[in-house]
UniProtKB/TrEMBL annotation:
This protein's name: Cytochrome c
A Pfam family per the record: Cytochrom_C
Keyword field contains Iron: yes
Keyword Signal belongs to the record: yes
PANTHER family: CBB3-TYPE CYTOCHROME C OXIDASE SUBUNIT FIXP, CYTOCHROME C4
Keywords recorded for this protein, A-Z: Electron transport, Heme, Iron, Metal-binding, Signal, Transport
Signal peptide from the UniProt entry: 1-19
Domain Cytochrome c: 24-106
Length: 106
């Protein structure tokens, strides 16, 4: 059991090291945004779903803003259940790529 924890800790450190080097690539995000398009319409702003909830416009926000928002959902600082679920499924690279992609939109 102890070994497992040690491994996890190591993996955590490796993850952090990798995160520092990740540079967002908008091109790489092109297939990743498929899971965002239904709600955050592209280009611009559409409220396809959910009907009762205003979906914020994320195209054209700064990369840092998008990245921070997604991390806040991951950590549970922001509570919207759908976005929490989505953010939880994203890797650091996904977040960097998506942030690059949306920040380049007008
Ligand atoms: C099922 C609909 C849905 C999907 C799919 C979805 N979002 Fe969202 N998103 C929302 C809603 C609704 C909010 C506003 C939630 C809130 O108030 O916290 C939101 C908020 C956000 C925010 C914060 C924006 C702000 O101005 O505060 C970001 C960034 C974001 N989404 C990125 C994404 C990305 C990237 C994807 C794809 C990986 C995605 N979303 C997929 C519905 C969705």
């Amino acid at each position: 059991m102890k070994k497992l924890f040690a491994l996890c800790a190591l993996a955590g450190v490796a993850n952090l090291a990798a995160a520092a080097e990740i540079v967002g690539d908008a091109k790489r995000a092109e297939h990743k945004v498929e899971m965002c398009i239904g709600c955050h319409g592209i280009p611009g702003y559409k409220t396809a779903f959910p009907e009762v909830y205003q979906v914020p416009m994320i195209g054209g926000q700064t990369a840092k803003y998008i990245e921070n928002s997604l991390r806040a959902y991951q950590k549970g600082e922001r509570k919207h259940p759908t976005m929490r679920g989505i953010a939880a499924s994203l890797t650091d690279e996904d977040i960097a790529d998506l942030a690059a992609y949306y920040s380049q939109q007008k």
